[in-house]
Amino acid sequence: MGKREVQEVNAGSMADIAFLLLIFFLVTTTMDTDSGLARLLPPPVEQEPEDTPPIKDRNVFTVLLNSKNQLLVKGKPMKVEELKDATKEFILNPTRDEKMPEFKEIEVDYFGVVEVSKGVISLQNDNGTQYQAYLMVQNELQRAYTEVRNELSRRKWSKAYADLEKDQQKAIRSIYPQRISEAEPKNIGK
Length: 190
Description:
This protein has 190 residues and is of the alpha/beta class. Helix content is 34%, strand content 17%. A five-stranded mixed β-sheet has the order 3-2-1-6-7, with helices on one face.
């Protein structure tokens, strides 16, 4: 018996095949995109104006979220589920309560002269606040503005706010501007 020859496998095209597989998987794989809050950040302030008048306490709706994800609204504990309704009441101030925000009169297209709230929502969270809790609070504040705008839109045009023309939406935003001031996170207590 003679020696058997060992068959060789031609590996010359293996690199080409591996490269083609790599390209195939890179092209066909989908990547998840990060999603965040849809917020337009204000331009940087170069210098703070010195003659800024102070905001009255009654015009500020203070929302604090501590490191244990507990919500304090105007210094009192509140459940996140109650935040939307409390925010709507602050925005609308239907009884013109002296402890709620003041109003000023402005001229608005489609509406004429209307009263607009001077209210500002001040949102602050703790360094230890969970992101999920922060998003829940943000969503409730956004829901309050969305509902208030939808209610006015339905009364005036019998349509949802999202279905209005751009100039009609602008008019409603003039009446209910979204004024949410977010302070830098810090340690605000347990």
